[in-house]
Structure formats: structure tokens, C-alpha cells
Amino acid sequence: MSQILVFAEQRDGQLKSYALEAISEGRRLADKAGAQLSVCLIGSGIADLSTAVAGYGADTVYLADDGGLTPYSPATYAKLLADALTATSATVVLLSSSSMGRELSALLAAKSDASLLSDVVETNWDGDHLVVKRPVYAGKAFLRVAAKRAPVVVTLRPNVFNAAEQSGSGTVEHMAVSVDQSVIVTDTSLISSSRPELTEASIIVSGGRGMGGSENYKIIEELADTLGAAVGASRASVDAGWRSHADQVGQTGKTVSPNLYIACGISGAIQHLAGMNSSKCIVAINSDPEAPIFKVADYGIVADLFDVVPALNDAAKELLA
Amino acid sequence: MKIVVCVKQVPDTETKVVIGSDGKSIDSADVKYVMNPYDEYAVEEALKLKEAAGDGEVIVLSLGGEEVQPAMRTAMAMGVDSGVLLKVENAALADGLSIAKALAEEIKTMEPDLVLAGKIAIDGYGHQVASMLGELLDMPVLPTAKSLEMADGKATIKREIEGGTETVTANTPCIITAEKGLNEPRYPALKGIMQAKRKPLEIKDVALNDEGVEVLEMSLPPKKPDGRIVGEGPEAAAELIKLLRDEAQVI
Ligand SMILES: Cc1cc2nc3c(=O)[nH]c(=O)nc-3n(C[C@H](O)[C@H](O)[C@H](O)COP(=O)(O)OP(=O)(O)OC[C@H]3O[C@@H](n4cnc5c(N)ncnc54)[C@H](O)[C@@H]3O)c2cc1C
Ligand SMILES: Nc1ncnc2c1ncn2[C@@H]1O[C@H](COP(=O)(O)O)[C@@H](O)[C@H]1O
């Protein structure tokens, strides 16, 4: 029977939201093809995640749980994934277009002589062939691409596919681990933040040059906290030193597709749109009625953001209380 | 020190996409082509390493049609010593693995101490060729570097990961991909531009075969209906929040 293999990304024992999306999409593809779904989980002290993964429809969980697997080592993880691919003879491997997923997918594809289709927003079968849709030229066009050979490796854009709980047997296969020392992570420093991460967030409040200075982001942060949102920025505000590059949305920053993207004092340059134009709902707050951001916005307010953003916060607090 | 920099020529980010007559690629008629922005960081870093070492050789390697030579000449104008073009037809959106295989064959013969590339090519958004090179050449890959230090036969980079930063080390030769912030690429000076014209650029015919993927169709994103201006002052805020909850159902 044919097989689909999904890599379920976790950090610090927490499954990423996009990992659940990938498993669900794997389940959907498997059901359509009458295939089995295997999920590969790699890390240390993560055995209990097998149950969570089964809860999203995994038939088999390939579990590599070993102290040597923290910190993350691309070469070791890619080797384990290649082992899981060999064990399952999967024809399709799904990962997420996160930094880890992008890196592992390329290593795995080269190891397995497989083609890689990245940042995919739609998957389907055409007979035995997988056909996907993916953005190119910064989202200014889409390609429909068919995989001609198996296996094929695919990374899915976070926040595009639905995660759906359902039952799976979740038989666990334990994998043998040998740690590759060719690339060593010597230090990981995670910025502790109460806010969700940009790529995972379902709401993002972003500020641009119109913010006028780093101290003014306080109003953006307050609105973000009321909405449970992440905070983003345009390149102009990153280059001005008001926000860290980690917050930058756009062609040379992060690609995001939240349910709601609120752009405050952002003009809507093509390179900014590249990073956020697949958001499901876009709100623009800008004092210039001619700003291009209004062309992609679902809702807009033409006014000074220093008046509007605090008013939005008050209104949201009241309505969501 | 011998450094190979992989450079791709891509449409400028301002390009308006018009779909070509084949329905599978862009119409390149009015497109302005530039060096992939991330590859500029890679070129700059290679030049800085050579300057710091006091000697060495930097080679630009591109795969594409004859028309990609301007990007290679730009790299030379910045200071790269020579170039090799692996000539193929229509490689813009070709299968990343077949591109990586062709580049890897060539790099093998060059025996570099270091290979630099961009983190992503902004035309196809493949995000794969450089990492694939690592596997194919059996070299470690240090992706998306925001800083690089070389010492005692080791390369150490810092990079962003979701929610933080990471420091990663590997022995050389290795492959490093450049992220924005690694450096500020220099502008070619007039003297550099003049010199670049005389620098050696070797053209080799190659074929991309056995591509594992096939482009079926290119399409433009669906047109969005015009958005609604909810108001022109802070008094519109309450209305907007209501619309987001009740109509768009996103909060
Ligand atoms: C190769 C390349 C890559 C790039 N990558 C990116 C990228 O990844 N991300 C990115 O964002 N950009 C990127 N850019 C830069 C991009 O072209 C724009 O310069 C940038 O997005 C502008 O940022 P901004 O909208 O904040 O600033 P501006 O364009 O200056 O816009 C500021 C807006 O704020 C409004 N405003 C001002 N004051 C107020 C106020 N009080 N109330 C309400 N509105 C106000 C103004 O009307 C204006 O529309 C890239 C450029 C290049 C060439
Ligand atoms: N045709 C090519 N010629 C030379 N280098 C390339 C080519 N395609 C990709 N690369 C290199 O690989 C990096 C990543 O490209 P990609 O995997 O296509 O996103 C680019 O930034 C280049 O450094």
C-alpha cells in the first residue's frame, strides 16, 4: 500500500501549529489515495507527543527520541527522515516551510534523489501524480506543478492548511539514532515572548515608517496583546532600527498568512505585499488615501494611526470582554 | 583561499508579472534583470574574506542562458576574479535538484575552500539549491547566516530561527547561505566595471535532464474585490472591530 510521510516539527517538546496542519493535509491526501499515513517525530523527551500526533490521524509514528537530538542538528535530523522514508517507501513527504522544514526538506530531497516543491499552498492528486500550487515571483504568480517521479518532497506554507483532529491508531516504531557531528549548534537563545511567533500567529499587527519611532510601537503592542496577536514590521522600520529583523514581513523578511493582518502606517510596497498578501483578511490604517496598501486591504481606515490604533484597542477590549 | 559564489540572475523585485505565450513562464519582454539580492550578500562576504586573508580567489558560478552574464559581470565589477557559466536553456523555474546536480558537478572540479550562496532565489522561491549542494558535495551547510566568522578551519555563523537565534559551527570546506544583514554589499566602482569586462568568463554547455517536476501552468493571483473604507477617523474603530468579528469572523 502506498504511503505518505509527514515530518512533525517540535521545539522544546511543543508541536508546532504548522506540524498539525501538515499531518492533517497528509491525512487528507492519504485518504484520497487509500494510503497509509506515517508521521516522523524527532527530538528528546518527546515520546508523549506520539499520542498527540495519532490524534491528528497518524497510522504509524516513527519516533526518534534521544538525548543527542537536542539541540537540533540538521544533518542528524535529515538522516533520520531519510531512514523513515526508506522504511515507509513513501511516495510523498510533507514538511512545513519553517526555517527547520526548509532546511531539512532540501537535505532530505538531495539524499533521496527526490525533487522538492516548496512553500506549497494547495495539494491534489492527478491519478498517481501529486499536483501542487505554489507562489513564485513573490506571490505575483502561481505555478501548478506536477511531480513526475516518486518520492517527492513538499513543504507546506504555514497557516494555509486546516488542522483537524481525528482518530488514528498511532502504532509507534522506535528509530535507531546516531548523531552526526558535522554541523554543531553551539548556542540557541530563544527570546521569551508572551506573544505568538510571527509565522504561527493567526493575527498580526504590523507597524511601518508611519510609526515614527521605536517608542511608538507601544500602541501596536497593546492592540496586539488585546487580540492575542504577533507584532510585525515593514523593512523601513527595521532599517530605522525601531524593530528587529526577526519581525520583518516581506520579500526579505518573513512570509506570513494569518487570518487577520493589520497594517498600520505601511504604504504597501510590492516587497512588503510579497510577505503578507496571502493573509485571509487585511486591514489598512493609513493617513494617505492613495497608499497602495488600500488596494489589497479588505477594510481600511484613512486617518492618523496615533488616533485610530488606541481607539481600536479600546473597541476590541470592550467587544471581546 | 578559493571561494565559489553561486549567483542567479532574477527579475527585479518591482517587476510586473505578465504571463508568456506558453502559459508556463513569464513574458520577459519588459523585465529588468538583476543579481538575486541574497547572492549580493554572498558575493560581498566572499570579497571581504579574500581581503581579510590578503590573498585568494573568488569565482562566480551561474547556471542559466547566455542572458544571465550581466549578473556575473556585476559580481566581477564588485571584485570577483573570474566566472563560469553553465549554459542551459530556460532554467529560471527549473527543478532545484537538477540545478544543484549541475552546479555540484562543476564545483567538484574547482575544489574550493568555501562555497557561498544566497538563502533563496526570489524568482522561484525554491529555497533548496544551496542545501542540496551540501548533500551532493558531502559538505556541511550553514544556512541563512547573519554573521560569519572563520577561524582554525572552522566556520561559525549566527542565524535566526523561529523565536530566537542560533550559533552554528562546521569544518570547512562548507556551504554558507547569506541572509539579509550579513553585510552591506558594495556598489561596483567605475574602475571595477571597466576591469570586469576583461575578466575571464568561461561558458560551458550543460543539460538539465531527468527533471522530477513539470510546470503545468502559471496563473495570476485572483483579483481581490475592492476593499471597504470603513471611515476617516478614530470613530470608525468600533465599527471596524465589529466587522472583523461579525462579517470577516477573524477575531
Ligand atoms: C530588494 C528589496 C527587498 C525589500 N524587502 C522588503 C521586505 O521584506 N519588507 C518590507 O516591508 N519592505 C521591503 N523592501 C522595501 C520596500 O520597497 C519599502 O521601502 C518598504 O516596505 C516601505 O516601508 P513602509 O511602508 O513602512 O514605509 P513608507 O513607504 O515610507 O510608508 C509609510 C506609510 O505610513 C503612512 N503614514 C505616515 N504617518 C502616518 C500616520 N501618522 N498615520 C497613518 N499613516 C501614516 C504614510 O502615508 C505611508 O503610506 C524591499 C526593497 C527592496 C528593493
Ligand atoms: N541557476 C543558478 N545558478 C547559480 N546559482 C543558483 C542558481 N539557482 C540557485 N542558485 C543558488 O542557490 C541559492 C538558492 O536558490 P533557490 O534554491 O532557487 O532558492 C541562490 O541564492 C543561488 O546562490
In short:
With 321 residues, chain A is of the alpha/beta class.
Task: Jot down its keywords.
heterodimer; A: 321 residues; alpha/beta; Rossmann fold; globular; B: 251 residues; three-stranded antiparallel sheet; 14 strands; 31% strand; binds flavin-adenine dinucleotide; binds adenosine monophosphate
What does this molecule look like?
- The complex is a heterodimer of chains A (321) and B (251).
- Chain A has 321 residues and is of the alpha/beta class.
- Chain A has 2 domains: 3-174, HUPs (Rossmann fold, 3-Layer(aba) Sandwich), CATH 3.40.50.620; 203-320, Rossmann fold.
- Chain A is 29% helix and 30% strand.
- Chain A has helices at 17-33, 49-54, 74-88, 99-111, 217-227, 235-239, 270-276, 293-296, 305-320; strands at residues 3-8, 10-11, 14-15, 36-43, 60-65, 92-96, 115-120, 122-126, 129-136, 141-147, 152-156, 171-174, 183-190, 203-207, 230-233, 260-264, 281-286, 299-302.
- Chain A has a 7-stranded parallel beta sheet, sandwiched between helices. In chain A, strands 15-14-16-17-18 form a 5-stranded parallel beta sheet.
- In chain A, helix 3 (74-88) crosses helix 4 and helix 5 runs parallel beside helix 9 (305-320).
- The radius of gyration of chain A is 21 Å and the shape is globular.
- The model of chain A has no long low-confidence stretch (mean pLDDT 94).
- By secondary structure, chain B is α/β, with parallel strands linked by helices.
- Chain B has a single domain (2-205), classed as Rossmann fold (3-Layer(aba) Sandwich), CATH 3.40.50.620.
- Chain B has 6 helices and 14 strands.
- Chain B has helices spanning 37-53, 69-78, 96-110, 129-137, 190-196, 237-246, and strands spanning 2-6, 9-11, 33-35, 57-64, 82-87, 114-118, 141-145, 147-151, 154-161, 164-171, 174-178, 201-205, 213-219, 228-231.
- In chain B, strands 7-11-6-1-4-5-12 form a 7-stranded parallel beta sheet, sandwiched between helices. A 3-stranded antiparallel beta sheet of chain B has the order 8-9-10, with no helix packed on it. Chain B has a two-stranded antiparallel sheet with strand order 2-3.
- The longest helix of chain B has 17 residues, at 37-53.
- At the A-B interface, helix 3, helix 4, strand 7, strand 9 and strand 10 of A face helix 3, helix 4, strand 7, strand 9 and strand 10 of B.
- The site of adenosine monophosphate has 23 residues of chain B, from helix 1, strand 4, helix 3, strand 6 and helix 4.
